[in-house]
Amino acid sequence: MSVDTRQASALLTDDELRTLDAHWRAANYLSVGQIYLMANPLLTEPLRPEHVKPRLLGHWGTSPGLNLVYTHLNRVIRARDLNALCIWGPGHGGPAVVAGSWLEGSYTETYPDVTRDATGMARLFKQFSFPGGVPSHVAPETPGSLHEGGELGYSLSHAYGAAYDNPGLLVACVIGDGEAETGPLAASWHSNKFLDPVHDGAVLPILHLNGYKIANPTVLARLPEPELDALLKGYGHDPIHVTGDDPDAVHRAMAQAMDTALDRIAAVQRAAREEGAGERPRWPVIVLRTPKGWTGPAEVDGLPVEGTWRAHQVPLAAVRDNPDHLRQLEAWLRSYRPEELFDEHGAPRADVLACVPDGARRLGSNPHANGGLLLRELPLPALERYAVPVDKPGATLHEPTRVLGDLLEEVMRATTDRRDFRLVGPDETASNRLQAVYAASGKAWQAQVLQVDEHLDRHGRVMEILSEHTCQGWLEGYLLTGRHGLFSCYEAFVHIVDSMVNQHIKWLRVTRRLPWRAPIASLNYLLTSHVWRQDHNGFSHQDPGFVDHILNKSPEAVRVYLPPDANTLLSVADHALRSRDYVNVIVAGKQPCFDWLSMDQARAHCARGAGIWDWAGTERGGGPDVVLACAGDVPTQEVLAAAGLLRRQLPELSVRVVNVVDIARLLPSEEHPHGMTDFEYDGLFTPDKPVIFAYHGYPWLIHRLAYRRTGHKNLHVRGYKEIGTTTTPFDMVVRNDMDRYRLVMDVIDRVPGLAVRAAAVRQRMEDARLRHHDWIRVHGTDLPEVADWAWDG
């Protein structure tokens, strides 16, 4: 529907219209001031070049639209006593959101030196995009923000993540029409099929069509209205259109649109919560069409600006050097009539603040936008209840992720009433052996259910959608608003969210330096169906590089764990789920894996992060001749198999076996909080002996982490070399030269004096690899000596 401004005129009194427009004009004035001014904030004297910043940075084009939304959200929050927050998709419109939080007082409460007067306004203006100041985006420094919008596409999935399990919360979400062109945003429209109107809050998308990106028109803005309506209705929304460039008419239409949308949302929730309605509702969406750079310069240097792409960033770029630009800027600022908006001391006048809510109802003060304030400890069970018994290493096998699934079932059950834990993943919960959780909660689903379907649940907290972007966005929004969760994904395809996790890590790094931001639960990844056991799916499913990507990021915020068996996975998962303000990456297999450590041993080993498995080696009192190191479940098995071969074939050799769980332990202590000192590293790996390291991922990562160590020249790493196909499990390690036979050959090649003494042993290892090659091409399975191998130490 489109809002008829003649009908809308009855909604607002003239006084209400006047005060709403005053707030909006004040926000626009403050937005322009932040982009341009470093002095003379109230224009108490004619504007001079020295009042203008030497570098003009920021985005004006979207700001007036964001200010309009902020103003009208204030109105409905105050009138309806709503608990609401807003996700600002065009986060580059940072001046608008900063302006809104300063007007309502939340900015000054957060930063007392930025007072609500002329002095504070001057500081507000100067600090924006200024050295030592604040960023131009809706950054973590902005009160009320939980979405920076630096990279576009994630606003709507963040909004839904915030709304899940928050039944009293309204999450407005402004979606820019440029952002609407991205794949992640397009997929996230489907989030309404997972929104439970009984236990979840509501999301009100506001699609802001101002027509242009940086230099081009936007797709949705150029669609005829019936075609756009068909698209949005196909997504399950009922659109409400607000279109115009006359401020009074747009204010009236926007007020009616907001009231209409909120009335519909209330009716949907009432029907579900009080009347037991079970059909999937159609949720409202507001389509707001206003000019880009609205109320800014209509024309600059003879070229149109307002309503065009030229309004995107800084419409007047030469203010310090061009007197005409300076005059235009002053006229632009004075067009908002600042003397009507601020008193002689620079404080906002009563009309400006008439629509502003009180206390925690203000958008900049809502605790959901500082979710750590609401966070509760996760009720995690004792690990002994789920640990697998290990009387001796390598005697039994379990599927590690299936064991973890039993623990996650209990976590899901223990949070049934609290509803503050969710498991997300792209259609892989059962595939990744976590299906035990279905006994405690089904899969969230509001669409059609057929008789053949399993575990679908209108009130479920397991979330599956075949869009890694949407899973990531949901979980980020959920965590940022004070809850807990786990993202389970195939290892190769978690790369799809590389950019998203970049943004989240940057957010965490900044919030750690903001004392008013309370710590949130960590973003936890469980990566399974990993490179070494995607032998059936083949090369397309084989990529362990997400770990490399993560370890490039801020050391204070990232952790990577490679547990070698079920009990170490339990220990690592327990630690990750208890942690705060990290991104934890856990890589663990779902296939049957030997159990190496008891629960007590696993705890101790995980606490160390790396340690000697003395039961696996043949080290004598004089120290090792060689170190066999491993990180990851399959590399661990191959190293132990190699150690067994060396024990039998070269019993006189002194072999030390080292297992690494926490990969950051390899870094120097001054570069990562978990890193080892040189003394620790040399004690574990020796400063001068050969180290043969079997690693789960790309070998060069280990070299990069350890390149400064004394013994780096003795380090030889085997891992994935981007060689893969559909083949047998053992053939994967053979193809990448990480198999047990190759590791034994590496030992012989690198331990001084062995090349001659052990030439026959090396030849037997080479023969075994050739035998393997012929065997699998005849039988289609691995050699019996490999398939039936067990630890005999």
TrEMBL record:
Domain Xylulose 5-phosphate/Fructose 6-phosphate phosphoketolase C-terminal: 590-791
Pfam family for this entry, one: XFP
Keywords: Lyase, Thiamine pyrophosphate
Cofactor list: thiamine diphosphate
First-level EC class: lyase
Domain of life per record: Bacteria
InterPro entries: Phosphoketolase, THDP-binding, Transketo_C/PFOR_II, Xul5P/Fru6P_PKetolase, Xul5P/Fru6P_PKetolase_C, Xul5P/Fru6P_PKetolase_CS, Xul5P/Fru6P_PKetolase_N, Xul5P/Fru6P_PKetolase_ThDP_BS
Keyword Lyase: yes
Keyword Lyase attributed: yes
Ranges where the Xylulose 5-phosphate/Fructose 6-phosphate phosphoketolase N-terminal domain occurs: 13-373
EC numbers on record: 4.1.2.-
Sequence similarity: Belongs to the XFP family.
Stated name of the protein: Probable phosphoketolase
Record lineage: Bacteria, Bacillati, Actinomycetota, Actinomycetes, Kitasatosporales
